[in-house]
Task: inverse folding
């Protein structure tokens, strides 16, 4: 008998590389290439260090209030966490405590199966169709819960809201989590449906569209009942998840909707330009509604291209997994960065 018999063994999620080199074009972790709203800088300049003596507000009240005003959702229907990873992990722990398998697509955010393994939640993956779209009917069977990112990652594909509504409506006995990490880049949110379905939890993040991946802010919105259960688990785990600086940063980001919309628009414009260029270079890809493009070249091997791009200082993401090992996930950077990527590809040869 060894203490190792009692260890919770997990195969951890592998996040995208965060290289130390500064001189690279970093298109590998779907970060926003633009800085956070100017009000965020001001908060950091003026933040009183004495505040750090005290524990932060465990209810994250100020940020919850700001989110409530911004999304027109009552405060008791909002849960705030340290990035949407934290919100999703808490949700898995809270809502998926049954015996039946939870369902999610085979090609999706690669943290879902890690949490399922970690919390010993039975799960079943549902294969996406050949074109990587979600097949609604796959979610019309008995289950212990459902998780669908919309748009999906790493494919970038948006599912239609009426299709998602059918899944939510057909599963009143399961919690359905819609992970909307990328929704602000031109997809339609399922948020209005939380009024109609008490089993729907919509999860969002400040990491992508609000340029705050480094601050770790995520949130979920759903029925009062769902949020209540989520809060109970959080308070039984760690009451002070969000620090006071981060909470103030979040409020500042929400105070500038104009900057937020302009930034998202710039990224969408750059994405559409990049799609045209990549297409002309022989790439094919699903129609992305996110801040990345999931692309495959007609002749070039993806693993080699990934390494060659890296060698040239351009970092993208490669997943060596069944069905997607010939694709690269390319985050949308600034227009200049995407022009440099395209220039590299125009000269690129693979023999
Ligand atoms: N959901 C999806 C689909 C994602 O791609 C990511 C980013 N890795 C997250 C959630 C988590 O983002 P964050 O924890 O930064 O909010």
Result:
């Amino acid at each position: 008998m060894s203490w190792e018999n009692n260890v919770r063994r997990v195969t951890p999620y592998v996040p995208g590389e965060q290289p130390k080199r500064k001189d690279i074009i970093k298109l590998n972790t779907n970060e926003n290439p633009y800085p956070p709203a100017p009000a965020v800088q001001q908060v950091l300049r003026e933040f009183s260090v004495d505040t750090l003596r005290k524990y932060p507000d465990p209810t994250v009240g100020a940020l919850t209030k700001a989110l409530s005003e911004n999304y027109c959702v009552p405060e008791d229907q909002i849960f705030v966490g340290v990035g949407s990873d934290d919100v999703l992990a808490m949700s898995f722990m809270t809502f998926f405590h049954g015996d039946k398998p939870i369902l999610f697509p085979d090609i999706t955010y690669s943290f879902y199966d890690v949490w399922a393994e970690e919390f010993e939640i039975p799960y079943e993956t549902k294969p996406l169709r050949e074109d990587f779209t979600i097949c609604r009917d796959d979610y019309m069977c008995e289950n212990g819960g459902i998780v669908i990112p919309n748009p999906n990652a790493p494919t970038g594909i948006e599912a239609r809201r009426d299709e998602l509504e059918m899944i939510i409506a057909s599963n009143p006995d399961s919690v359905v989590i819609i992970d909307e990490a990328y929704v602000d880049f031109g997809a339609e949110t399922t948020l209005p449906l939380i009024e109609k379905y008490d089993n729907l939890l919509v999860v969002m993040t400040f990491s992508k569209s609000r340029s705050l991946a480094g601050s770790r802010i995520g949130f979920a919105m759903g029925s009062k009942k769902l949020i209540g259960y989520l809060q109970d688990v959080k308070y039984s785990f760690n009451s002070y998840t969000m620090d006071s600086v981060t909470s103030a940063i979040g409020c500042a980001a929400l105070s500038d909707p104009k900057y937020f919309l302009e930034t998202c628009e710039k990224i969408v414009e750059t994405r559409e330009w990049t799609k045209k260029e990549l297409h002309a270079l022989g790439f094919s890809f699903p129609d992305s509604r996110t801040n990345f493009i999931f692309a495959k070249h007609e002749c070039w091997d993806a693993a080699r291209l990934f390494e060659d791009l890296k060698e040239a200082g351009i970092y993208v993401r490669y997943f060596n997994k069944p069905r997607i090992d010939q694709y690269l996930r390319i985050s949308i950077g600034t227009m200049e960065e995407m022009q440099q990527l395209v220039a590299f590809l125009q000269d690129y040869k693979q023999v």
